[in-house]
Write a structure and sequence with these properties.
Layout (H helix, E strand, L loop, with lengths): L7 H4 L5 H18 L5 H4 L1 H7 L4 H22 L8 H22 L3 H16 L2 H9 L8 H28 L2 H22 L7 H5 L6 H5 L1 H34 L9 H10 L1 H15 L1 H19 L7 H16 L2 H11 L5 H29 L6 H15 L1 H8 L14
Length: 424
């Protein structure tokens, strides 16, 4: 992993290739711990359908509102990292995330209280995910940072997988409140890791010279905007699939002659999230070799093609359905690191925080709408007990994903030169 920094000895004081590699590892590990509570709610969605008598639309709101909290927080929490050390924002926001999960464990009594706490959790995530990335990239050479970005963003898949797994195991052993409470501890561990590994750092002079909360230069950067819009479409699909996979597998199991006896569905959900990690890292390596925009477009077409048919497969033998879900999860994640790395490398240095704020604001707007739209379509086309409803819901998500290649082509002009043309 020493290739993460090429000129770090001279350009970043006190930074060596080894220390840069260690920082990538620690920040990725911190992100994994910080995400342990992320998937508890969607992983236990069948439990809440029963306990709180949720409709499909209400479930969609609970899945999506987390990202509404995220997009409410990012304009401030990420943009201020151009003036304030991103490490400080990460630490404070991790505590917000911890508080939201503990609040869910102690006080959630139904749809409305859960909805409010999911918003708060989303705000906490807004101050950790991209500020964590900026904490990392501020301390290494950004000249060729796509691999560092790939490993960091891929940690999202590992954290999500562990979250799905722990949610199921803790709920089975104790109950869902313990699942939220115990996974909340991960946020405290993330705080400790970042506090110990990332030393305090003052903003650079060119960042201080830029106008705070002036997003106009970001929107003039066509290259960055192309990746940002592609990220919204990517998240639209990825988060809808992530939020509804366990519920879909539960429906498929109900159609099996033996009820899919012997299968651990939350563990399968964890595996679906886990395959996203190597898929994201591998996808970025493919993009570095064959061209970023071309590779992202190809992955989007492939994942949309799978999404168009997977919902109609629920009645097939359960092993086939599980295999399709794993392949679909990998396909939806394959462009994840590539899209974010493209935005990072297209950003002007003085507008880096603002670019990441817009990247997250617009990108996770898609993350909010995807799960919500899925639940709405499911509700309108027959409900969660109808095979055609699941097929239509997945296909609806897939159709919009196909806009990604068009967006990348329209916004292909990039006035901000990237250090390595082969990555674009």
């Amino acid at each position: 992993m020493r290739y993460f920094i090429r000129d770090g000895e001279t350009k970043v004081r006190g930074m060596t290739p080894d220390s840069g590699s260690k920082l990538v590892f620690v920040m990725s590990l911190a992100m994994v711990f910080g995400l342990l509570g992320l998937a508890v709610q969607p992983a236990l969605l069948p439990v809440f359908f029963s306990e709180w008598q949720l409709s499909e639309l209400q479930a969609g709101w609970l899945n999506g509102i987390f990202f509404a909290g995220y997009i409410a927080g990012v304009p401030v929490l990420i943009t201020i990292t151009d003036r304030l050390d991103a490490r400080t924002v990460f630490l404070a926001s991790s505590f917000i995330g911890f508080s939201a999960l503990m609040g869910y464990a102690l006080f959630a009594e139904g749809f409305w209280s859960a909805l409010a706490l999911r918003v708060l959790a989303g705000v906490g995530f807004a101050g950790t995910y991209m500020p964590g990335l900026k904490t990392l990239t501020d301390r290494i050479d950004r000249k060729d940072s796509s691999r560092a970005v790939a490993f960091y963003t891929a940690s999202f898949g590992l954290g999500s997988a562990l979250s799905f797994y722990l949610a199921g195991e803790i709920n089975a052993a104790l109950d869902w409140r313990w699942a939220f409470g115990l996974t909340a501890i991960g946020s405290l561990i993330a705080m400790a890791l970042v506090f110990a590994a990332a030393t305090a750092k003052k903003p650079k002079r060119h960042a201080l010279a830029a106008a705070l909360f002036d997003f106009r230069p970001v929107f003039r950067n066509r290259g960055a905007i192309g990746y940002i819009l592609a990220y919204a479409l990517h998240n639209w699909e990825l988060m809808a699939v992530s939020a509804w996979t366990v519920a879909f597998l539960s429906f498929s199991a109900s159609l099996q002659p033996d009820g899919a006896s012997g299968w651990n569905i939350t563990l399968i959900g964890a595996m679906a999230a886990l395959v996203a990690m190597p898929a994201s890292i591998g996808g970025n390596e493919v993009a570095r070799r064959f061209g970023r925009r071309r590779t992202i477009a190809a992955f989007m077409v492939i994942s949309a093609a799978i999404g168009a048919v997977i919902g109609f497969s629920a009645a097939l033998p359960f092993g086939i359905v599980v295999t399709l879900c794993l392949i679909y999860s990998a396909a939806t994640a394959a462009d994840s690191a590539s899209v974010t790395a493209g935005a990072v490398m297209s950003a002007a240095p003085e507008h880096y925080g603002a670019t990441m704020a817009i990247h997250s604001f617009i990108g996770f707007g898609g993350a909010f709408l995807g799960p919500l739209m899925f639940g709405l379509v499911l509700d309108l086309t027959g409900g969660r007990q109808a095979l055609t409803a699941w097929g239509t819901a997945f296909a609806t998500i897939a159709i919009l994903t196909l806009l990604g290649p068009l967006v990348l082509k329209v916004f292909s002009s990039n006035p901000v030169p990237t250090p390595n043309p082969s990555t674009d």
